[in-house]
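[Automated response] Your request has been received and processed.

Submitted sequence:
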Amino acid sequence: MKSYYLRSLLIALIALVVASSGCIGQGGEKTTAGSQGLVITNFGFDASTIPAGEEASLILELENVGGATATGIAKIYGVPFSGDYAWNCGEIQKSIPELRPPDPVAGTPGDTYTIEWDCISPDVPTQITQQFEVDVVYSYQTKVTGTLMVVDKNYLKSLPATERQNFYSSGGITQLSVSSGPLSVSVVAPRPLIYQTQGESLRVRVIVRNVGGGKVEGNTITIVEQKGISCETSSFELTRGEEKSLMCNINVQGVQQKAEVPFSLIFSYSYVNHAAATITLQPEEL
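Generated structure:
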């Protein structure tokens, strides 16, 4: 009997978490979770062990699974490329061409791309396992569009109690769309947004999080477009595992009594994904 009640409680808690995720929470916060943009689907050698001094192919496979076009570079490191017992892999940095995102309307996946390094291993005297690292650095954008319900203070007071309560339960953020990528964006606003005079600006909070598993190159993000909204800065830092909160203004010029006010933001940045691969070199005498 005790086990039954514990199991029922656990199921109820899980249901509560699932029901609350992705919805407008108390206070009018709506979140769309991001995902990785240009992902590393494979990084490794064509063989796990090779004779020392022989050639091996190091293969990097990429796929754009986000919501924007990606282009960038891939650079390998982690082992010596000069001096004694050096690897010869040719160009250690290679370009990544423009890769288009998936098309949900046509049902087509995002572009894929494969980079291959033909590496000649060093003639080492003893068996050794070495680890190659790769950084994929690509340019990306996260696009945010939404609408906010705003209402005149005096108009709100004039409404019957039931209609007034509807504004408090459904006002604020009525729609929010964030393109898929390594950043997630939340918008926090009162319910509803109430203005007192024509032309005043109403404040909302925009929260940007790094959810892609990598890092923002140089920790710098630039807002390259702001429509219907004006944030306190056009450039800010975002380090790995952290979030940035921006105060932004929504202009309600021309709004009569009530209206859904559209806004949009475009964040531009370079993002870094990392992977590692190992290979064992075996001397001829072993």
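Summary generated for your ticket: The helical segments are 2-20, 153-158, 161-170. DSSP finds three helices and 18 strands in the chain.
If you did not submit this request, please reply to this message.
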